[in-house]
Design brief:
globular; 6-stranded parallel sheet; 8 helices
C-alpha cells in the first residue's frame, strides 16, 4: 500500500515545461493570473481612495452609516467602539444628522445594532437620531439595504481605514453618494489581519458591484431614516 501511494504521489508531481517556448508560456500564464488577482484590489482602491476623508474635512451628509464589527460579551468590540466614537463625533460636529447602524442580528443571542444603539445613546446621541438595520450581514448587504430599504442617497461611511475603501466602493455601486471616514487604529496583529482579509474580500466586492445581487433580506421600504431626519429638522 505504501509503495503504491508513493508511486502515485511521484506521478502527480508538477512538471515544468522543458522547452524555452513552454517556459515563456508558463511565465506569461502566471503573470496573467497575478494581474487578474490584483484587478479587484485595484478597483477598490481606485473607486474608494478619492472619497476617503478625515472626520474634520469630510463633506456634510444627512446620514452616517456605521458598519458592525463584532460584539464581546454583548457589547461592541474595541474596533466597533472606535467606529461608534467616530460616528458620535461626526454627529456632535454637525457633519451628519442621523446615524444608521447596520449589523448582524441573525440570532436571538447576537444583536449588533441594538448594542451599537446602546453605546451611542450612552455617549449623548439622541435615541431618535439612530436607525437600526438588523440585516447588514456584510458590506454589500448594508449598502444595498441602505439604498433600497432605507432610501439613503447620500452618506458618510464609518469603518476602520483598512475597510473603508471597500465600503465606499460598494456603497457607490449601490447608488449612494458616499464619503468615508476611517476610525484610527494602531497597526497591531488585528489590524494586519484585517488588511490581509481585504485583499481576499476585494474579489467578492468586485463581483457584487458587477452583479448587484439582492441582499439576503430585502423587505419593504422602512421609513426610519426619513422620520429621524424630520425629527432632526425640527
Amino acid at each position: 500500500m505504501g509503495v503504491t501511494s508513493g508511486t502515485r504521489l511521484r506521478g502527480t508531481r508538477l512538471r515544468l515545461p522543458t522547452t524555452v517556448a513552454g517556459r515563456r508560456r508558463a511565465v506569461r500564464g502566471v503573470m496573467a493570473a497575478c494581474v487578474l488577482a490584483l484587478l479587484p484590489v485595484t478597483w477598490v482602491h481606485t473607486a474608494g481612495t478619492p472619497r476617503v476623508r478625515t472626520a474634520r474635512d469630510v463633506p456634510e451628509a444627512p446620514v452616517a452609516m456605521v458598519f458592525g464589527a463584532g460584539l464581546w460579551g454583548g457589547k461592541p468590540s474595541p474596533y466597533l467602539a472606535h467606529r461608534l466614537d467616530t460616528a458620535a463625533g461626526l454627529y456632535r460636529a454637525g457633519k451628519v444628522r442621523v446615524l444608521l447602524v447596520t449589523g448582524d442580528n441573525s440570532r436571538d443571542d447576537y444583536d449588533e445594532p441594538d448594542a451599537m444603539r446602546a453605546y451611542l445613546t450612552k455617549r449623548g446621541v439622541p435615541d431618535d437620531r439612530i436607525v437600526s438595520d438588523f440585516a447588514g450581514f456584510d458590506t454589500w448587504d448594508s449598502c444595498a439595504r441602505a439604498k433600497r430599504v432605507f432610501g439613503v442617497d447620500r452618506a458618510v461611511l464609518v469603518s476602520q481605514d483598512f475597510h473603508i475603501r471597500r465600503a465606499v466602493a460598494l456603497c457607490g455601486a449601490a447608488g449612494i453618494d458616499a464619503y468615508g471616514v476611517g476610525a484610527g487604529e494602531k497597526h497591531d496583529v488585528t489590524w494586519l489581519a484585517g488588511g490581509a482579509r481585504e485583499v481576499l474580500a476585494a474579489g467578492k466586492a468586485a463581483l457584487d458591484a458587477v452583479v448587484r445581487p439582492s441582499p439576503a433580506f430585502l423587505g419593504p421600504h422602512e421609513p426610519g431614516v426619513e422620520r429621524a431626519l424630520e425629527t432632526a429638522g425640527r
